Amino acid sequence: YEIYLNGTTGAVPRLPTDPSRLEELAEHRLGPGPVGYVAGSAGDGSTARANRAALDRHRIVPRMLRDVHARDLTTELLGRTLPAPLALAPVGVLSIMHPDAESAAARAAAARGVPYILSSASSTPLEQVAEAMGDAERWFQLYWGKDREVTRSFLGRAQASGYSVLVVTLDTPLLAWRPRDLDQAYLPFLHGVGTANYVTDPAFRAGLAKPVHEDPNAAVMHFLGLFGDAGHTWPDLAFLREHWDGPIVLKGVLHPDDARLAADAGVDGVVVSNHGGRQVAGSIAAADALPGVADAVGDRLTVLFDSGVRTGADVFKALALGARAVLLGRPYVYGLGLDGEAGVDHVIRCVLAEFDLTLALSGHARPDTVTRADLAETAP
Ligand code: FNR
């Protein structure tokens, strides 16, 4: 009721509560390069559209008279208790959106107890983000590159800075064909954005002929050369397992067989994700892949989900389709761009409040009682 109560004095929220209006506002107010980078997707954009269409196709079938007056959103996963089945997805290069970048997003997440997943391509070094978060739950996302020493060093730094879960992104060994960025010839990395963890890393610096400040362009080129490794195969995961003491989650799994391989490789979870439609144009919608993955490994692995989540109702649907929790992506990035930490806080609170209401109004007092029976699939 907070918003309505404030409304009695004539105040309305600083940002829209409707995610499409938030996106429109971001498109309008933020620079075309940065907002194009965030909003854009791969190829013809069909994967990003399919992500939304798949979630829209599933409709909630609410149940009545089930005593939902006392609700508890807490969620157990990967050996920890979260206040709700929600985390902030790893999104790199956030300084293109706001000067406070990842630290602002991380502080907003920390204030609500929502895990913050820091991208290895952040514009702020991981130690600085950790400092901004105090003891709050933080996970580290790894772009698993070509240089083993750099990888090992990143894992050591992340662990020393209190990141507890390692999220390894598998779907981006190469950056995809992204027309909005190509048409504007805009790639943040070429401006040095997103390289903060690299240029502060001793193992990375050891590979440079000159110190970063003497030849920043060479550092960027070196970064681009080792950022991804399209040569990795499943047995290579043993290296990460050996050097990370804690849960490992593989992000970007869509095929049930890959989910089984992940379980066989001894990791702890998967994120069913197509990177928000930014990698494979024409790919299956993430929500369409989710039930198959959940059926294949739900009893062995923690199944998380992202790509297309905009509202609390979407969170509900993802849980019904087999996810244990959901990662929120673009909406919080728009919130950051429009109003810094307060904008991220606004978006997190809107999603959580709407999720709580959706849960209650659909006949549930807790997230873990939601099942596929709560949904009806309608024709596309
Ligand atoms: C991303 N995503 C991403 N994923 C990742 O593992 N590491 C990263 O550095 C980034 N960077 C990134 C930048 C931007 C601008 C976007 C929009 C996305 C993907 C992200 O974690 C998540 O999978 C998607 O954002 C989910 O799609 P939606 O819900 O945002 O459409």
Write structural notes for this entry.
- The structure is a single chain.
- This protein has 16 helices and twelve strands.
- It is an alpha/beta fold and 380 residues long.
- The chain has an eight-stranded parallel sheet. It has a two-stranded antiparallel sheet with strand order 1-12.
- Helix 2 (19-29) runs antiparallel to helix 16 and helix 5 packs parallel to helix 16.
- Ligand FNR binds at residues 37-38, 89-92, 119, 121, 141, 169, 251, 273, 275-276, 278, 306-309, 329-330, 333.
- This is Lactate 2-monooxygenase.
- Keywords: Oxidoreductase.
- Residues 11-380 form the FMN hydroxy acid dehydrogenase domain.
List keywords for this structure.
binds ligand FNR; 380 residues; oxidoreductase; alpha/beta; eight-stranded parallel β-sheet
What does the radius of gyration come to? 20 Å
Percent of residues in beta strands? 5-15%
In angstroms, what separates the terminal alpha carbons? 35 Å
Low-confidence stretches: none
Q: Report the average pLDDT across residues.
A: 98
- What is the strand arrangement across the widest sheet? 4-11-10-9-8-7-6-5
Bound chemical compounds: ligand FNR
Quaternary organisation of the protein chains = single chain
Number of strands: 12
Shape: globular
Helix content: 40-55%
- N-to-C order of helices and strands: HHHHEEEEHEHEHEHHHHHEHEHEHEHE
Number of helices: 16
Largest sheet: 8 strands, parallel
Class per helix and strand makeup: alpha/beta
